[in-house]
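Z., the sequence and structure:
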Amino acid sequence: MKLLDEDEGINPALSVVNLVDVFLVLVAALLIAIAQNPMNPFLEENVTIIKNAGEPNMEMIVKQGKTIETYKSSGEVGSGDGVKAGVAYKMADGSIVYVPE
């Protein structure tokens, strides 16, 4: 029982316990701030995230409601079936005009 009889100023373990308590409160406050951040994309109902944009291993994650779908790039550019739908022209003022065929 010598530990309980010692002076608090002499025992360094008491100050370490206080530091642990301070850091626990700090970590809890940071977690709450991150969870309530209005820029948190996972709070939205519909979210689209693109990882490695423009790279051969590009991945797209789409969240619609409670369903989450993942699409991975095959690495091929311009693959697929389709027909030409029209022509787009960039005007001098920067606007784009689409002319269907």
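The two ends are 93 Å apart (CA to CA). The mean pLDDT is 81.

Let me know what you think.
H.
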